[in-house]
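Issue: copy button drops trailing tokens. Both records pasted manually instead:
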Amino acid sequence: METDKNKEKENNLDTKKETKSVTKENAEMGSTAQTKNEKFVEWSPENEMIMVEWCDVAQCYKWLNTRAHNKYKMMNAWFTIPAITLSTISGTASFAQASLPVSMQSYAPMAIGTLNILIGILTTVQQYLKISELNEAHRVSAISWDKFARNIRIELSKAPSERMDAGPFIKICRQEFDRLMETSPSVNEKVVQEFFQAFSGKEGSIERKRFEALKKPDICNIIISANEYRHPWYLDESTNTGTDNVVFVEPENEEYIRKKELELLEKENTLRNKENAEKDKQNRRENAQKMFQKGFLELSKKLKLQSKKLEDYVQAFQGMYGRKPIVDEIERHAEPLIESGEIERETLVKFLANYKSEGVLDLV
């Protein structure tokens, strides 16, 4: 019986070991599958620029929240200390009321009531302005922003081979950055002005250069176009649609990037100006053709009217005298019309060149 029990125990142990080994293998397979599905992201200058920007913004928020915490701490002290003092005086006066002179005992309740009213006003105003809550919120926010900036600064100070993978680290930092932006209290505008006065420095100084290079948050009245954060892959003319042939530009070449952008804008402007000039030239040509056609039609119409007057004279003369007029007669008839401007001399010359008298001797 004992041998059978020992055999059963051994079988149970073997089955447990097999199940444990199977679960370990499944876990290892699952972890390898997850690592295969996750894309490995190396550290690049663009990823480091994102981290640098977040670290700068975190340092700015740390200073702003610390300054706001100091202000609210002072305000909290100005509200709390008088309330404690007045409440202590009021309590002491209520106990010592019987020891006062008889002439002063009637005024003691009024004085104690006044002190209690002042204490109530101070505490109510303090609660309405949420001074203690904002004081604690700014303190916690300053500590959180400092911790966030310190983690990024330590990670960037390492060599790329010693750092954590860029993909998970950026994901963690982005989640923490979003959380801090949501939970941090708003900063007063006076604190922002003090921030500029404390770090801007004089023109041309090292402090001014560092302040200009610092990436500041949006509450500092600074908004930067998203085009400055765009990856400069499009500036390389040899790039293809595939990501393997993309050549990334180092962040030190910002001036080169801006020059390329200006060159592209200048090329677009020159092409646009050429197109506009060609359109203007085409419009002028079309307008000139229209004006020429219009003038030609008006001139031909005018010549027809003038020739019609001469033809009417010839027909009238022929109907009256039974013959066509000679050239001299036509010229004598046309002279007053030429002087009055009804007929031009060129019209008369052309009419006489085409005129043929029938049965009449041309004396000219």
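Record 2 (pasted manually too):
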Amino acid sequence: MNFKDYYTVLGIDPKANDKAVKVAYKKLAVQYHPDVSKHPDAEEKFKEIGEAYEVLHNTKKRAEYDELRHHHLNRTQNSYANQGGANGASQNWGQQQSDPQTDQEFSDFFSSIFGSSHGGFEQGGQHRQRQTQPPKGQDIEIEFPMFLEETLVDTLKPVEFTLQQREPSGRIVEQPKSLKVKIPAGVVNGERIRLKGQGGPGPTKADNGDLYLQIRFVPHPMFDVDGRDLSIVVPIAPWEAVLGTKLKLPTLTGHIQLTIPANSQSGQRLRIKGKGLLSKKVHGDLFAVLKIVVPTSPDKTSTQLWTELAEKNKFDPRASWSK
């Protein structure tokens, strides 16, 4: 059988690191995936790419392959030199034959190195068992919006998305799919939830891809999110800031009574313990951020009272400027 250069298959340098191998594989796997590619040999290309990745991303397999590749290149060069031309450049590689009953997803060349369905060569030519998996279907990731209130309890929510599938004619069609998914309490913004086997269909005898839900919190009209903590701006009148007051404060689970202490300042934060978002162990906190708000259109009586207060009060909020 002819030697197969896996580095050429992935279009990378033999000295490429593991990251470069992964990048090349992902790019080509997307390009030639049978469910999306219009290339006439897409499935064979996809298998070949997966076969190359199976070897090159595995440190031990790659070391074995590199040694064999080195011997092959030396033999090819020697043969070319001895025969004096290009006739020596094409060499059948290896005498070991693969088992046609088990060689379904990987080539005879791969099987001759690592065994017909799995395995490789120990010293002395003995097989060692090593399981390999054919490339699976395409993974799908979608953003999944959630309201803050929904994160406090386990929630059963519908998920709707589309899969690309290839018809026997070769035409790619969009197929809608819907699921009901249990979202556990305490999820965080940006968290990814994996639904195994719910992604794109895999090629022959391969597993389906996975579906990933990336949690995105829907912006709340009153609460801002900071990790597990929430904050809410609480408008108060100037006299409430001076004299103190009690008010009803909205939370994700209903209203509670909040006491505003006397002589409060704008920007002051009051902590309400345990009224934030749920974590796996404890709740976060809710912070009430005070904001002093003055009347925009005071009537004549209010204006007179403010005037009298200004004349009688010696408070200077800018006293520090004169120091």
